[in-house]
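forwarding from the other thread:

> can someone predict this with FE2/S2 (inorganic) cluster?

sure thing
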Amino acid sequence: MSNRHAGDDVLPGCGKNVSNHGIMDDSKHFPIAQPNGEVMSQKVEDEADILQEMKGILESSNSDGTSLVTLLQAVQRHFGYLPREAMIEVAREKGVSPAAVFGVASFYNQFRMIPPGKYPVKMCMGTACHIKGGNAILKVWETKLGIREGEVTEDRLYSLDRVACVGCCAMAPVAVVGEVVHGNMMPTTVDGVMLAVELAEKEEQKQEGESSGQQEEAAQ
Ligand code: FES
């Protein structure tokens, strides 16, 4: 495994959004495949917020002249998935039934209808990554996380998807976890990536605890 580090140059063939830290600024923009789960009733965003944000999406998408698929892509780019309420809004906008929109969304692999985990794992299955054993690494992810591609772990920490080329073919096989690009993945390196996530999670919780403690002290 080799991650991107400060000071690294962007590798040939690697997306321009990969920063020195391996941050992919538009990771939500990757096509996401295989929505194996069903539409969830659980909401990660308030319905009113979704409707409000949908107004902006529909306005900026020139929805009259935009195909249903393009509109759904815009919605997914924004939310990271297709919220039920958003699909209903799309149906209203396009003058078709919600069932028709759900039908289109579930037909195409690129759409997901469940919210991604806090750390979405996107295993690249582009040609270079496929040739270099991406499929075997995807299987390891499935085993370690206890979920299949397209699913989310019970604690909602991870989701797992296969994606098309993320533009870092020189580092194949590649997994993007959260916003970090992990190149030259091997089956044995999945544990290390998960450990890094756990440490980041613990650090975040520690900082949250400290900041809420400071707020309580200031309020006294
Ligand atoms: S095929 Fe290009 S990054 Fe995986």
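The helical segments are 47-60, 68-79, 84-94, 98-107, 127-131, 134-145, 190-219. thats all i got for now
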